[in-house]
Amino acid sequence: MAGFDKVVTTYEDAMSGLQDGMTVLAGGFGLCGIPENLIAEIKRLQTKNLTIVSNNCGVDGFGLGILLEDKQVSKMVSSYVGENALFEKQLLNGELDVELTPQGTLAEKMRAGGAGIPAFYTATGVGTPVAEGKDTRFFNGREYLLEESITGDFAIVKGWKADRYGNVIYRHTAQNFNPLAATAGKITVVEVEELVEVGELDPAHIHTPGIYVDRVIVGTFEKRIENRTTSE
């Protein structure tokens, strides 16, 4: 059993091996389901020249946005600039290379990468700047463009519950990009709210099997909300 135990107790151990110039896949959508503490550890490590693949880049001062403060990120592959003014500024100033990717295509790029599929055809982006420089082909009279899949040196993921073998369950909307990223990292690190004993998770409810996961750490989370709207 000890050989299958993937739990680490420090964030230093969780992100051990991260180096300058690596590609990091990050789960989350906006601020929902983001691996807050793993991002904070990358900030602490001051790793530079990173390529970050994620739906967006958090907000100013939180989430992936904190990695922009010291210019740790050289390239973002994302589908949404979002609420991050620093992201916008660095993009417009030419300090940050941004590869804007349609959201569904970005999701499939990660899924395909995790499945060992090098590329796939999609109709999304045909006839737009997204298609520039890409191969196209007609299927059943409709034009499709070829998109390459994505893998990363690290995948950082936020789960709800996990066991010591690395089997993970996500909670509600926080599932988003997390299970896709989890499959596509050479080293996949999952931080969770709760660690349970092996056998406690219903096998039918597991979203990410432990075979994809290299390290598990238990954390506490702020779970900040981007925009709160309430009625009187």
From TrEMBL:
PANTHER family: ACETATE COA-TRANSFERASE SUBUNIT ALPHA (PTHR13707:SF60), KETOACID-COENZYME A TRANSFERASE (PTHR13707). It comes from Psychromonas arctica. Belongs to the 3-oxoacid CoA-transferase subunit A family. Gene3D superfamilies: Glutaconate Coenzyme A-transferase. The keyword Secreted does not apply. One of its GO terms (molecular function) is transferase activity. Keywords: Transferase. SUPFAM superfamilies: NagB/RpiA/CoA transferase-like (SSF100950). PROSITE patterns: COA_TRANSF_1. Signal peptide: none annotated. The lineage of its organism: Bacteria, Pseudomonadati, Pseudomonadota, Gammaproteobacteria, Alteromonadales. It holds the Pfam family CoA_trans. This is CoA transferase subunit A.
